[in-house]
Amino acid sequence: MFESLQSKLSEAFKILRGKGKITEKNIQDAVKQVKMSLLEADVNYKVVKELTDRISQRAIGEKVIQNISPDQQFIKIVNDELLKLFGETASLDLHSRPAVILIVGLQGSGKTTSAAKLALWLKKKNGRNPLLVADDVHRPAAIDQLEALGKSVDIPVFYGDRKDPYKIARESLDFAVKKGCDVVIVDTAGRLQIDEEMMKEAEEIAKVVKPDEVLMVLDSMAGQDVVNAAVEFDKRLSVTGFIITKLDGDARGGIALSTKYVTGKPIKFSSTGEKLDQFDLFYPDRIVSRILGMGDIVSLVEKVQQGLDKKKMEEMEKRLKKAQFTFDDFLDQIHQIKKMGSLSSILEMIPGAQNVKDLKIDDEQVKHVEAIINSMTKKERSNPEIINFSRKERIAKGSGRPLSEVNKLMKNYEDMKKMLKKFNKIDKLGKFPFQMK
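Now predict its structure.
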């Protein structure tokens, strides 16, 4: 997330690192680097100018704080100004019964999937009973896509006659009341660009359903044209907030930083992966912390709590203490960690991890290890000691991986077993290193 912007900003902070004090000259150099970093991240020029002007004014007037280095003071200033730009975490205002959320946006931004993700979020986090409305009658298979998504998370989908968007919108409200649904999420047709006829359709649908919220879906990897589209949508539909998608990719960050400034409307949700549960409120403080390379411990802890099975972890701890670690255990750990997302996304939440040299997280390599273990028989996974050369050859062929990788995995396993046995001996003396004293 924002890898490029994060890397460029770290160069700005290096300008002040090691300096004895803040001076106008080194501040100007650092601010210049910040400005270039933001422009390269495709942030709106007006946003960059106002932001860097404020940073410069604050930094030059800042008193040197004892025991705080100039680069730390500068990072604090940039952090504060970015937070001002983003604003605070914004929640939904759903006061009607049923409440209505209108989902709009350009085609290809992830609009239909975002509608399903929002429905699941409301169901799991807010205890709501949502209804999805497939009101995109223009894109082939759009209705079928939403119907399949709804079915996968046990959320009803209304699509009416599949032809008349106004009739579908109107009838969906009565359907929601009959089914006892308290939130109606209407997925409208996407647009390749600002199209007058399509905009009028969205306006008419809004008049029919009288939405509590109008959320526009934005592709975080798109260019500044999307910001212009956001302005137009807001002008015509009074957008109440934005959902920003594809934050798990190498987003440059320009859309996220520009939209709030240009429209004055908050980013309310962010989507960080393809899975329907990889969706949450947009937390400006956490995003800014990651942009500045300071990690995001709060989100990391939440991921761990949601992704890991506490009972299984306790059982694993007991097995580790007895050195009873098998490839079944290893595979189970891989599955649990994968629930939290990619290893690279987890790494960026750890403060300072981005600055560690030669620390590379290869998610593909994890898949290779998983393939090798899956190619073992149940007996081999439970008793790795029986895996001889001929078995290794069969495992390599079955997994599509070279024999060298199988040998490497086996060696790592043996090394881990030896280490666990040493820890077990220490534990018998009452000094097991994993215990908190």
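The chain has three domains: 3-86, 99-294, 306-428.
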